[in-house]
């Protein structure tokens, strides 16, 4: 489900931690096999990807189903850890968990610090606007001088700040972002196109979909560098799940279409 603000510093620190952790460390595959569990981090507040059921308190969503599939096929029990997005990569670097399954966009700065699985989600950045706002923003450049809500530490925050001239407001989660949008504290919000479709379907707020304002993005599962056996095993699980239709079935369950393949 993502660096301006403090993320450049955080990634630099993460890179140092991740590099140090590689020295004399056993491959992650051997570690998790010996433990019998796979420690999986996610936000837990990012429907329909990962969130807690209001009645049971249990985690559910697309990422949760993918994570359970991966753990099961590795012969492991999933152990979920929920954490705020802004600190999730630093937590991975410091060894608090083994992987993140939370719509982490694969991009060059992150690949300096972490290895990634093959992509399991494809989407694009999309604007969300108030229903009564008839303005059409065809690109991020068109938002110069406007207030734009984004997830703290997300790739969308990085993209918005890189565009220049936009008053970028960071939020810990989508609900707070959209509430401020609905009452006019910000002019638009920027999020994942799949997340946008879900929010518009389930929210009672007076919001609507805006334009898609970027290229297709790939999300994968990051883990600390120096674990080639784990990487090979993880990618085999994802390849097998794609070949036998399991990933497609999870996608269709949550989105009505296969988001695990490039458009």
From TrEMBL:
UniProt cross-references to Pfam families, sorted A to Z: SBP_bac_3 (PF00497)
Protein keywords: Signal
Gene3D superfamilies: Periplasmic binding protein-like II (3.40.190.10)
UniProt key word Endoplasmic reticulum: no
Top-level division of the source organism's lineage: Bacteria
Signal peptide as annotated in the record: 1-25
Domain Solute-binding protein family 3/N-terminal, residue spans: 37-258
Family named by the database record: Belongs to the bacterial solute-binding protein 3 family.
Protein name, UniProt field: Transporter substrate-binding domain-containing protein
